[in-house]
Structure formats: structure tokens, C-alpha cells
Amino acid sequence: MILNRRLVSAISLAGLLLLPLGIGCEALAEEKVQESETELAKKTQNPVADLISIPLQNRMNFGIGPNHRTQDILNVQPVVPISLNSEWNLITRTIMPIIKQPDIATTSDNTWGIGSTSFTALLSPANPGPVIWGVGPAIQIPTTTDDMLGSRKWGAGPSVIALTMQGPWVIGAIVNQVWSIGGNNDRPNTSTFFTNAFVNYNLSDGWYLTSGPIITADWQATPGNKWTVPVGGGFGKIQRIGGLPFNLSVAAYENVVRPDPGADWELRLQIALLLPKSLFTK
Length: 282
Prior knowledge:
Blueprint: H1 2-18, H2 25-30, H3 37-44, E1 52-64, E2 69-76, E3 79-83, E4 88-102, E5 110-114, E6 117-125, E7 131-141, E8 153-166, E9 169-183, E10 191-202, E11 207-211, E12 214-218, E13 227-241, E14 244-257, E15 265-275
Antiparallel strand pairs: 1-2, 1-15, 2-4, 3-4, 4-5, 4-6, 6-7, 7-8, 8-9, 9-10, 10-11, 10-12, 11-13, 12-13, 13-14, 14-15
């Protein structure tokens, strides 16, 4: 039931995000898709691909604190590529988290709201070689609605991505380091490291196996509480809903290294609406 509600909510939110662009569902459904499901799956696994997508990723973190509370984060993370010229693309990636943060001292109290938004702009070759890469700034925006949900600090730092596609394999990582550069003076400065390493093996008919652990470090935390290192994986599929291509996936990860208190494990559900760029250039 939870998964069904998440999928319905995700599809509804994706539709609302499209309304300002003046794109109706009928126009999208009529767009001819030239790529096979498997090739489209590989394209969605390339973070700097020339593909507009609106992923909605729900992360449920279980076993937090002595009362084994659950944190829920719904990431709204549109990816929009911009063609600068025949040689270079600029890939913009925005992640806005909608958070249910549990009070670990109780069994029922929660804080709801929006956390810090992250924005990256990656400059990437339009015609890459065997190694696909991108580099650019990562910016932290203090959209936090409650002190429990983020630092209320502006932040900035470098971001880099590298990957390769060999047969059915798509392997790579995106890495960034962000330092606080301003914002609420009453809050401590931040320094955070992030890497999303990914390994995907593509099967037939748009099915694929995936592992994409999100490894983070809070350099300001006390010794022994800096790193979160998950291990796990899952599977996904390109699925057409009403004629529109969506990327659906589910994965589970155990946090083999985690701060205290930190989640024991994570269940990650994602749905991403995939949009042909030709719809925006006619």
C-alpha cells in the first residue's frame, strides 16, 4: 500500500511539474520513441546524458536511535541538460528533499518540512570518448524550513563525475565536497563529502540490476561519527505508463558504517519521468 501511494503521488507531482512548460499528457504520449527500452535504461543511468528527466526518489531510513525510528526523505530531483554548442553540454541537477524527521527521544514525534536544496551544473563533452565525464560547481541552498532539517547555511564546492559504458555495464561515480560559505551565523559551519558510486547491469526489455550506495562524510562530526557507508542494491525497469516512459527502481542498503545515532538500513524507491528533448525545441 505504501509503494502504491508513493507511485501515485510521484506521478501526480511529475504531472504538476510539467504544467508550467505547457506540455499536455496527450502530446507526450504521441512522441515517437526511437530508442529501445534497454538503451533508454542505459541512458538514464548516465547522470550527464542528453535526457530531461524528473526523478522522484523516496528514501526510508530505518532503525534510528534507541526507539528505532524511521526517517523519510522524498527527493524531487529534476535533471535538465542544456546544449551550449556542438561540443559541450551543461547538465543541471537539482535535489530538493521533503523530510519527515523523527524525534529519536520519543516514539511518535516528527518534524516535517524541506531540507537544504543542492544544485550542480556539470560541464560535459557532447561527444565523449570511452570515459564520460563532467565537472562543475555544487551549491547548497538554505531552503530549510526547520532547524531540525538542515544547516540553514549556503554552501559551495567542486563536483565531478566519471563513468564508462561497456556492453551491458554502466559503472561510475559522482563526487562532491561542499563547504559552508554564509547564511545563519547562529548555526555552525559545515563541511560535507558526498559520493554516489553506481554499478548497473542491463538485461533485456528495459530490466536492470543496480547498486548505487550514497556514501557521505560529515567532517565536522566527532571521531567515529563522520562516515555513512551503505552496501546493497536492487533492480529496476523502464516502463511505459499511458505511453510515457518511466524509470522505476527499488533497492535496499545496509549501513555497515554509520554515525551514532544513525539508520541501520535504507529502502530506496524511485520513479523518473523521461522526456524527449525534442518536445522543448519545437
